[in-house]
Write a structure and sequence with these properties.
alpha/beta, 8-stranded parallel barrel, two-stranded antiparallel ribbon, 10 strands, binds fe (iii) ion, binds zinc ion
Length: 277
């Protein structure tokens, strides 16, 4: 059974988000671990978590992804920003143990002129500070478009971070199809080669989730503007090939396309239909 869902707002709690997911044909979802622009922390209500677990089990919702705020930057040149990133990462990871064995995705960061090497080191330093041996959450580095001074626009940069993390068993990668396309990896016409490269550099066993998005911009544009599936430069058929790939088809696929709920329901239905053909 294909695991597919989309990014959803968690403002009404976990049980409510699972209901919303089920109502649009999703059996996974992604949510922001906290306010994406600021730092406000949501309280974990034990009753809501229990209700979520019961509902999720009943409706076949397995793996879910938490997404860290966009403002998180563990390799900022500003000490205060780095400090916020570490606090945020460690608080989020602690709270996520209420829903054990799930995934926590974050954008590795932007070095803002300090250089790639320094950025990679600072990201690894932050992870070495916040990861603990007993955690059940797997932390995912998201593949990035390489916009500005973003780290993670190449598989090699992600590998270099992982290599410097002591508890690297707790670290994996989330592949965003829009981002890798914008970074210059041709997922439309050479997906097999992109996966082989990923496997050689990072290892496919590190790949835990896919963000399934089309891109408004051409290959290698380094832009990061998501499009609905089939309304961008990658195209619907190419994205379906990604979902159908034997090495990927057991992973959770998360849509982060510009859609409301009806649009997401339609996209999920179309992908399920195309994959089952
Ligand atoms: Fe993201
Ligand atoms: Fe993404
Ligand atoms: Zn993006």
């Amino acid at each position: 059974m294909l695991t597919i869902g989309c990014h959803l707002s968690i403002s009404r709690g976990f049980r409510a988000i699972a209901e919303t997911a089920a109502s649009i044909g999703a059996n996974t979802f992604q949510f922001f671990s906290r306010n994406p622009r600021g730092g406000a922390v949501r309280r974990m209500d034990p009753d809501d978590i229990a209700a979520f677990h019961a509902y999720a089990a009943e409706h076949g919702i397995g793996t879910v992804l938490a997404h860290a705020p966009y403002t998180l930057n563990p390799c900022s040149p500003k000490p205060k920003v780095r400090e916020f990133a570490r606090t945020c990462l460690s608080e989020d990871l602690l709270r996520l143990e209420a829903t054990p064995h799930q995934l926590y995705n974050f954008h590795p960061g932007s070095h803002v002129g300090q250089g790639v090497e320094q950025g990679i080191q600072m990201i690894a330093d932050a992870l070495n500070e916040v990861l603990v041996p007993e955690q059940t959450t797997t932390v995912l580095l998201e593949t990035m478009a390489g916009k500005g001074t973003e780290i993670g626009g190449t598989f090699e940069e992600l590998r270099a971070i992982i290599d410097r993390v002591e508890l690297s068993d707790h670290v994996g990668v989330c592949l965003d199809t829009c981002h890798v396309w914008d970074a210059g990896y041709d997922v439309a016409d050479a997906f097999e080669g992109v996966l082989e490269h990923f496997d050689a550099v990072i290892g496919l066993e590190r790949l835990h989730a896919v963000h399934l998005n089309d891109s408004l911009n051409p290959l290698g544009s380094h832009k990061d503007r998501h499009a609905r599936l089939g309304e961008g430069a990658i195209g619907f058929d190419a994205l379906v090939q990604v979902v159908r790939h034997p090495m990927l088809r057991d992973l959770p696929f998360i849509l982060e396309t510009p859609n409301g709920l009806p649009g997401y329901a339609d996209e999920i239905r179309r992908v399920r239909e195309a994959v089952s053909r």
